[in-house]
Amino acid sequence: MGKIKVGISIGHGEDTWDTKGSKGIELDNGGHWEEFWFNEKVGKIVYYLLKDHNFEVILPQKWDSNETPLDEKADAFNEAEVDLVVAIHANAGADGAEGACIFHWTGSNAGHYADLWLENFGRLCPEQGFHGNGRHVADWGQWNAFYMLHATDMPTALIEHGFFTTDEQRERLQDPDFQDRSAQAIVKSICDYFTVEYYGHRQTETASTDDSPSIGFVTVEAQELYYYGSADWQDKAGTVEAGEVFTVTDELHVEGYKMYELVSGTYLTANEDYVSFEADESTEDDYVGFVEVEATKLYYYGSADWTDKRGTVNKGDIFTIVETLEVGGGTMYKLKSGTYVTANEDYVTFHEEL
Length: 354
Ligand SMILES: [Zn+2]
What we know:
By secondary structure, the chain is of the alpha+beta class. The protein is 23% helix and 35% strand. Helix 2 crosses helix 7. Zinc ion is lined by residues 11-12, 23, 35, 89.
């Protein structure tokens, strides 16, 4: 049996606010906030959690890209024959409107997914509350007969995570911790729906310098290139683009062809017609120092991005630092393995040498 396929629709795109002036809000400070920012951040966490739980993820709209038309998304899901679709959104509404909610077509099995999500979101994100009883069943002729709910051949749920037009609700949507819990509610519910055991963020050793050292860096040279969810040429998981650079942890031979294993746990061809490779020449001399984890558990990150959580490390773990970075008002250490941890002294201690 193949992997279970889940379709993820990230609501709207990079260009939605800029071109239409909708799906966002002007703020009192003169700036603005876009719904897409929430949708895509949650989508990224959902994506990696699903891959960690061995699902195949169909993502018709690439990361950080403009809005993909809804019919293209629905066609992609139908063509791939995905088993379930979840669309990620946040809501606009009347002044003071509150609460998250889930939409599904009447009679659809997505109603079962909705039951599970209502339970999991209610437990993981109780502060956001529900809009009404949290469920809006859609049907022809009703206001909520949303295109994605009826254009897909498979159970489809559309989730609104609260109202960004209400300050208190939007502040939660902006909070990385709320984003993470929202993503976990989606994925826990997907696991429950397919009776797959849910174990949260993967506790891999990718942050450990001993178990997963970087051997180098691969740069994508082809315009577009598949990457793989496992060391299997059939297990296409999505595409990467020219210019993207990834940390390589291993080189493998798969059915006679070379493949790179990446620090994220995904795989890429090592064929020099499509990629170029640069060995990691870092030596002990390059280190900045060492970081020791003081918190009982601490997130580590796949990139210099606080929302890119990949798992946790434990009190007492020590890692080699290769760089110190300012990220979104905080400080991060880049580790020799290519992953990142906070440099906040409340949680970690810096050692110049051991
Ligand atoms: Zn939306």
